[in-house]
Amino acid sequence: MWYLGSWMFPVISAAMWLGMLLGMFIYWEAIGHPIYPSMNQGQTIAYISDVGAYHLKPLFIAGACVTTVFLDLAFMSERWLRHKGRLAPNTSRAQTILSIIAILFAIAGSAGLILLSNFDTYHHPRLHDGFLLLFIGGYWFSAIFLCAEYQRLGIHYRSHRILRLSFWVKLTFIIVEFVLAVVFASTSYTGDPNVAAVFEWIVALVFTFYVLSFLLDLLPSVRTSHHQPQGWALKAEMEKAHHGGQQPGAPLTNDSAGPNQNRHVAPGDDLEAGAYRGTTMTNGPGYPAEHNDLGRQKKRGIGRLWS
Known about the structure:
This protein is mainly α.
């Protein structure tokens, strides 16, 4: 059923990620903007990691795990559906390699997010920062390789605009996240933690839209009464083009010889030549031609001479 398809993976992932962020931010607001022990001197705006290091640590861990698992399932589903032909198939080995590398970087990014949620910034600050770098870098490089694959797919399948749209969405994510991450890192290490905290929340929110961009990739594989999977539609178009825009016609005859079955036999000579649609016609195993009127001869007693 279409509503249980792989397109649900990015929806679940994005919903969990956004719900976790909103829950943590609302909680921090509701309890009066507390200053956590892990916060820097003069810092008044909490990082996501600060909020997730204490009472909301179970929510942080659960949100990180669910988000990454379903996002990785979206990556793998896209590869599988493209391989099985429900999505526009890869046209070169390079495209397949780019897709596999993107999946590997996504898994690395997932590991980084899960580990940073467990090794909190209060008890394990250095490990936490290292896993944060792995999380951001893993998914950023994954987006680069996926973007390269879609750029090549869009060139080959020009009639499918959704491939180019997905390419531009992912390219926008790469550029925007790079700029935001640079600002976040620079302000973190130059002694302006409040600005860095704001940009960390923004980076996390932008990541939500990147996760949702996989809807553009997976929805074309859905089959409904009004929609055919992208790969099937492409196959039908190629077959139609191969036959010159027409469906292949039925054979003129049902036998194996085709329309040239009787090309050496004139229409008026069919019975005379003993040929009819590929079958040799005979007068049967009966009597010689001069005794075809055997019934009348038997009445007169003539037929007994030949029995």
